[in-house]
Amino acid sequence: MKYIAFLIIVVLFGFGCQTKETIKHEFLKVSKNGRYLEDKNDKPFLYLGCTAWELFHKLNREEATEYLTNRKEKGFTVIQAVVLAEQDGLRKPNFYGDSALIAFDPTKPNEKYFEHVDLIVNKAEELGLYIGMLPTWGDKVPNTIGGEGPVIFTPENARKYGEYLGQRYKDKPIIWILGGDRTVDSDTAFLIWKNMAEGLKQVTRENI
């Protein structure tokens, strides 16, 4: 049986585009021994993460700014959050009344929802934080554990969704994480996660 508690795929990057409000991020890569992340000078990166799974889904912009500022002050370096959140993240809209997807279709992202995600990602960048971004919680992929769901992913639309996210955030300090408290207990589920990762990598490969 394959497990996917948290598979961090090799699409890890920070960026040097810097305004006077923005802290410069370093490029990240997986170390040669595969055991940690490091910067472009081969110096180990301290991954001190804080879990905020519902950050994009439940918080408004002021709350998100307050939270991110607090985490930065406390020394965290990575904020882990889910785009398609666990707590009924497809049926329940965000604070502003915007759902993540149109008609539960991963190939039809709602621009208004993702503009809110953009603002939070940009604020994290200003503060010098990385976002450990999960494209979806595991209950949206076929599994035997179940959950809020609904199950919406197929191998075909998972790749397209990965490409969409990769293209949208390829110039942002994102550490991509595939997972969400589910076992990969079928060939279909494995192919969905694999295709999603390949979709992300296809768009961001130049930054690896």
Tag the structure with descriptive keywords.
two-stranded antiparallel sheet, five-stranded mixed sheet, alpha/beta, TIM Barrel, single chain, 32% helix, disordered N terminus
Summarize the structure.
With 208 residues, this protein is of the alpha/beta class. Helices cover 32% and strands 23% of the residues. It has one domain: TIM Barrel (Alpha-Beta Barrel), CATH 3.20.20.80.
How helix-rich are the residues, as a percent range?
25-40%
Largest sheet: 5 strands, mixed
Q: Look up the CATH topology.
A: TIM Barrel
Strand content: 15-25%
| Structural category | alpha/beta
- Which architecture name does CATH use? Alpha-Beta Barrel
Number of helices: 5
Number of discrete domains: 1
Per DSSP E runs of 2 or more residues, the count of β-strands stands at: 11
CATH superfamily: Glycosidases
Kindly describe this structure.
The protein is α/β, with parallel strands linked by helices and 208 residues long. The longest helix is centred in the C-terminal third of the chain and has 18 residues, at 187-204. Helix 2 packs parallel to helix 3 and helix 4 (155-168) packs parallel to helix 5. A 5-stranded mixed sheet has the order 2-10-9-6-5. The chain has a two-stranded antiparallel sheet with strand order 1-11. Strands 3-4 form a two-stranded antiparallel sheet. The protein has one domain (2-207): Glycosidases (TIM Barrel, Alpha-Beta Barrel). It is globular, with a radius of gyration of 16 Å. Strand 9 (130-136), helix 4 (155-168) and strand 10 form a beta-alpha-beta unit. It is 32% helix and 23% strand. It is built from 5 helices and 11 strands, in the order E-E-E-E-E-H-H-E-E-E-H-E-H-E-E-H. It has helices at residues 55-58, 61-73, 111-127, 155-168, 187-204, and strands at residues 2-3, 6-13, 28-30, 37-39, 49-51, 78-84, 101-102, 105-109, 130-136, 174-179, 183-184.
